[in-house]
Design brief:
By secondary structure, the protein is of the alpha+beta class. It contains 2 helices and 4 strands, in the order βαβαββ. Helix 1 packs parallel to helix 2.
Length: 79
């Protein structure tokens, strides 16, 4: 992850199964201001597909995406 980014919000959804991770992500993004960055940590592999679909549908930008073992990390910029 980039050390230069400032995260307005962080969301740790490890241990949660579909559809809870994407629902919590969508809820968090709804409360954020346009341009804010959300750092997400997850471990549900289905979340990868879901976060890409959500970002595409709502116009948010995935700035960073990393996988380290079972841990998934994303940085999303809200539209």
């Amino acid at each position: 992850m980039s050390k230069d980014l400032v995260f307005e919000e962080k969301l740790d959804i490890r241990g949660l199964d579909c559809p809870v991770p994407i629902l919590r992500t969508k809820s968090m993004l709804a409360r954020m201001t346009s341009g804010d960055h959300l750092n997400i940590i997850a471990n549900d592999q289905q979340f990868i597909k879901e976060i890409h679909m959500l970002s595409s549908q709502l116009g948010h930008t995935i700035l960073e995406e990393e996988t380290e073992g079972e841990i998934l990390s994303f940085v999303i910029q809200k539209k």
